[in-house]
Amino acid sequence: MTQPPDPTLLWTIIIGLAIGSFALRFAFIGLMGGRTMPVWLMRHLRYTAVAIIPALVAPLVVWPTPTGGTPSLPHLAVAAAVFALGYWTRNVLIAMGSGAVGFLLLFLLAG
Amino acid sequence: MAITTTKSAFWKGFRDGAPFLLVSGPFGLLFGVLAAEAGLIVPEAMIFSLSVFAGSAQFTALQLMQENTPVLIILISALAVNLRVAMYSASLTPYLGGAPLWQRACAAYLTVDQSYALSIVQFETHPQMTLSQRMAYFFGTNGCVAPGWMLATYIGALVGTQIPASWGLDFVLPLAFLAMIGPMLRTPAHVIACFAAVATALPATALPYNLGLIVAGLIGMMAGAQAELWLERRSIAKDPS
Predict the structure, then answer these.
(1) Which residues of A touch B172 (CB under 8 A)?
(2) How high is the pLDDT of residue A31?
(3) B108 vs chain A: nearest CA distance in angstroms?
């Protein structure tokens, strides 16, 4: 069990994210009306999620927390399998299910 | 069934949205569990889910908080993960933009993957729907998903503290994200953006304050945008019509 986070930090993040994510959604439907965004900006925005999420995940897979940051072949293999299943089936549910199975395998291997 | 009244539009949305409980349920549960693991108490986890209402942004913030990342970087990264909802909002504006301000504010709060995906298909295939029917349908799609998400967070936060650290639960979050990435890679440009981001992210972990995430994200976005431009030009050159 980790230490509870610093309350100031936690609430700054919760309030910041609540306001920020609402503003993101409201900016268009509430304020923009019919105006459109520049094409180049939309072109970049299309790739935010597929860039940020993999960038967040990659170090967590290569240096997994449960092993204390030591690269581990089982973790890498399970991660690759979950990604590949998601990519080929295009189905989040199947990918999530395979992730659960993969996690169980890792749990049994470690135990 | 044809949508004849505002009420039936709401229930049509409600029924269409119900299967998505299968996605938002486990996701909310997982958020609750990981929040408890990160040391959040139940009311904190609940307020987090209730006020932010954006799964992937919440997971990102949770992960970075445990890595002692500066507040500003956490906020930027989590909001960047959530930028796609801004695009959903932009894309729904032609259909819902004429509604009263309070309704638009509620709709903005409820704009998530599921409600967007269902509504945009419904609005495009049924152009005869009135504005109030569209709004009712949109709210209906959240009828199951939003309460389900809250309840799942609550249960997850309750049981989360019971789970020992030796289970290695930390690795569930990367796995959940990985499961989301595959289906998102719809075009070659998406794949290029993803791999450019990964290739940058690994060496960029050497940067202080987790700045590597932002740098890698920006490089991935630029790679995707450039790849899209290049692919467009190539298809025009191949097929001049």
Answers:
(1) 99, 103
(2) 67
(3) 5
